[in-house]
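Can't paste images in this forum, so I'm doing it all in text. The chain is below; anyone willing to post the predicted structure tokens underneath?
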Amino acid sequence: MFLPFFDQLRRGGVPVSLREYLTFLEGMDAGIATYDIEAFYYLARTCMVKDERNIDKFDRAFATAFEGLDAITADQVLEAVDIPQEWLEKMAEKHLTPEEKAEIEALGGFDKLMETLKKRLEEQKGRHQGGSKWVGTAGTSPFGAYGYNPEGVRIGQNESRHQRAVKVWDKREFRNLDDTVEIGTRNIKVALKRLRQWARDGAADELDLDGTIRATAENGYLDVQTRPERRNAVKVLLFLDVGGSMDPHIKLVEELFSAAKSEFKHLEHFYFHNCLYEGVWRDNRRRWDAQTPTWDILRTYGSDYKCIFVGDASMSPYEVAYPGGANEHWNEEAGQVWLERAREQWPNHIWLNPLPDRYWQYTQSVQMIQGIFGADRMVPMTLDGIERGMKILT
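Text version of the structure:
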């Protein structure tokens, strides 16, 4: 029954062998992942992915192979098999009408929200589902999962639904962008070429045709001349927002990232989530235990680097303006402070936004970051926007 999955992995570029597929089937026969979908995913990935660079390809093939499972109704599932309770928890999600959502009001700001959460956790005893006060699921409380509140603290929910949570209380894993993804359009690379500055360096490994002709004529015999290869001398520092509201833009950002990797010899990249804070990272699988202090980045890379931020700038305004407002951790200094430091360290900077610019005026955090960087230095991630951004950087 898993042959289509195996075929999808091969078509998706995952070099999985028949032996690895049979190992996966042996694990299924042994009952390692009978009723646990997360265990099923990790079993399949462990058996059939040999190189971590293929994890992103595996994820996409996995999603394609099992697309549509979420459309199966509860009655169909229950008729087929006795499903464990934890699989049915999400079915308790409450679908509120627009009128019901309009009736729900925020508690009164970020500070009040966090203070109330602390009190609820101290008062509450045991698990709670539904309702509007306690920390639980499927309700209208500001705290919990799979419910709705215009300003909430998300707890125990693996993904964003309304993109309204002020803070997320779960550490999530983000995958690295694939720098080998095939470019959907060569025009992205053409747009990036505007930033290139050619210089000759390195070993003499390029044929100097004019020099060879001249030397041959002077010496009377073939005298091959070489010269240092021309390389792009521009230095680029790339900060990439990952996770959350950036998930719909992964393909576009991967195309940009892959094009930049091929165009610029001196390219350094780091990941962040929503806003720049005291730490960034190179590997999303180690984002919590292998962060690089942002101060080190500011001290290491000189002002001659071209700095490019890539992100939709869509977040709670607290994440930009307040200490402690970060989405997933406690930040001693506001995101705005770190963005201003980056702007001062790298005068040649832009912010590429994959969100269409016609929507920017409706998101407060986008306007706040525009105010920090300068309205002309936030450009949409379109071909025209990239070209305009490269002109600004030059």
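The chain has a mean pLDDT of 75. The chain is about 40% helix and 15% strand.
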